[in-house]
Amino acid sequence: MTTTLDGKVALVTGGARGIGAGIALRLAQDGADVAVTYRQSADRAAAVVRQIQALGRRAVAVQADSADPDAVRHAVDRTAIVLGRLDILVNNAAVFLVGAVDELGTDELEQTIAVNVRGPYVAAQAAARHLGDGGRIISIGSNVGERAVFPGLALYSMSKTALAGLTRGLARELGPRGITVNLVNPGPTDTDTNPADGPNAQAIAGFTALGRYARPADIAATVAHLAGPDAAYVTGAVINVDGGFTS
């Protein structure tokens, strides 16, 4: 088993399902102890924890609504307390609210900004107090942050584009402390909320150069690289793992 992250501790927000679960498991496979947050999917979070423990790693699930700044801070601090430290933060939790600009109201706007923008900022702010030299902050954006090919994506696209600015700003601010900050933009990925055999999947896959959906493991592989020692000189980067969607 690869152990490039042996002795490291990671927190993956929204790590109970989909891409987040894939990332949590890959980091554990690479040697890290892992905490995951979840909002409602307690059973799924517990299943991810069991899978991580079966790999011989420590794991903990923390209930936290990423729209609640206090809950986000608590999740970061609890990870450091329970697992002894924090080396890697993966900002993965997000909401996907779509609709025409004249149909989405203030509630949808505030929820999207709270979870997709404020949540990662607060998590990074809290994590920065724990991270040392070699620390990593990796946020999960979206291909539609760079190319919104369907109508109804303006709000979500805006929120994910904000992560690029956060990434570059934090990279400058935290770089002198040896902490790297990067953004991964997945393309269409086969999850329970966006299945590769869904009603619009063929059209969506057609926008990629490879003509297919990614697996969560494809996204997780890039995150694991950025979390590891071989990416020590990569910071402030926006990496598209989208099968050529934005080509």
List how many beta strands DSSP finds: 7
CATH architecture: 3-Layer(aba) Sandwich
CATH superfamily: NAD(P)-binding Rossmann-like Domain
Count up the helices.
7
What structural class do helix, strand and pairing data support?
alpha/beta
What would you report as the Rg, rounded to the nearest angstrom?
A: 17 Å
The largest β sheet comes out as:
7 strands, parallel
Number of domains: 1
Tell me the helix content: 40-55%
Shape: globular
Spell the H/E element sequence: EHEHEHEHEHEHHE
CATH class: Alpha Beta
Report on this structure:
- By secondary structure, this protein is α/β, with parallel strands linked by helices.
- It has a single domain, classed as Rossmann fold (3-Layer(aba) Sandwich), CATH 3.40.50.720.
- Helices cover 40% and strands 14% of the residues.
- The chain has seven helices and seven strands.
- It has a seven-stranded parallel sheet with strand order 3-2-1-4-5-6-7, sandwiched between helices.
- Helix 1 packs parallel to helix 2 (42-54), helix 1 packs across helix 7 and helix 4 packs parallel to helix 5.
- The radius of gyration is 17 Å and the shape is globular.
- GO terms for molecular function: oxidoreductase activity.
- InterPro entries: KR_dom, NAD(P)-bd_dom_sf, Sc_DH/Rdtase_CS, SDR_fam.
- Pfam families: adh_short_C2.
